[in-house]
Amino acid sequence: MALHLIKLCVGAESVEDLREWVSRKALAAIAAGQQPHSFHTTRMVPKRTEELLASGSLYWVIKGYVQARQPLIGIETFTDGEGIGRCNLILGPEVVETELQPRRAFQGWRYLEDKEAPRDLASLSGDGGEMPLELRRELAELGLL
Question: Is the dihedral of CA 27, 29, 34, 39 positive or negative?
């Protein structure tokens, strides 16, 4: 069973904002002759690396809801210029929209078991996947989605 991470997407107003950020990072990486992966730097290093890299994703909380995920393809540890240990979560270039799942704000990242992870929006055909975001959000708040 896959294990995932969940993190607040600070500064993003929408999934489109996240996609634009990922695209800019991918273009910069390609221009530098690197793979088009994005990464997120965090201070805490996940201990359950093998489980995460088996087929895990980083789920993004945007405006109080899990709304998207990116496949987690690597974890690299390093020490920054101030001597503090850090970690880069290497993410695949695709941003996959998910069903809305409300989440309160929290610091850092958390583990997310596969059974608790929201489904991909593409797998929800006929289940609200084609609805506009605001309508899906209202229905989710009412417990109807």
Answer: negative
